[in-house]
Amino acid sequence: MPMIRLTVPTGALTEEGGATVQRDLATVLMRWEGAPDTAFFRAQAWSYLNVLPEGAQTTAEDDAPRFLVEVTVPQGALSERRKNGLVRDATKTVLSAAGLAPDDALRVWVLVHEHPDRAWGAGGAAVRSADLVALTQRSTDQAGA
């Protein structure tokens, strides 16, 4: 169930960044979640790009673009170390896609949403974290065989 969603104001990404940021963020998420790099798991790492219309984002101070990254994972899938790595790498990915410097890192917020067992479903059934762990293990075993 790894899912990542980036919300950006219109025109905030470079042309190249806009073309690659979704897959780049999905790759960051998979790496920190520890998912095997297989076609099956890449197809399950959903990435959304929400582009806000002009004027839809501001602060009390200025109109410089801000970026919101929302990550949804099963509860317990990310240790504190993995969360920190995910937040760091997602921030770097967004800054790069927007052509911004590391000094602009506070303009990128990353929210990690953890869903408990059976609080989400796929394929018409509620899913448990244990099911995902078993699926990951089978995929890893098959890749190593």
Biggest sheet character: 4 strands, mixed
Low-confidence stretches: none
- Strand order of the biggest β-sheet: 2-1-3-4
Number of helices: 4
Average of per-residue pLDDT values: 89
List keywords for this structure.
alpha/beta, single chain, 41% helix
Report a brief summary of the structure.
By secondary structure, this protein is α/β, with parallel strands linked by helices. The protein has helices at residues 15-33, 39-44, 80-98, 129-144, and strands spanning 3-9, 46-52, 67-74, 108-115, 121-122, 125-126. The chain has a 4-stranded mixed beta sheet.
Characterize the structure shown.
α1 (15-33) packs antiparallel against α3. The mean pLDDT is 89. The protein has helices spanning 15-33, 39-44, 80-98, 129-144, and strands at 3-9, 46-52, 67-74, 108-115, 121-122, 125-126. With 145 residues, it is α/β, with parallel strands linked by helices. β3 (67-74), α3 (80-98) and β4 (108-115) form a beta-alpha-beta unit.
Produce the secondary structure layout:
Elements: E1 3-9, H1 15-33, H2 39-44, E2 46-52, E3 67-74, H3 80-98, E4 108-115, E5 121-122, E6 125-126, H4 129-144
Parallel strand pairs: 1-2, 3-4
Antiparallel strand pairs: 1-3, 5-6
Helix pairs in contact: 1-3
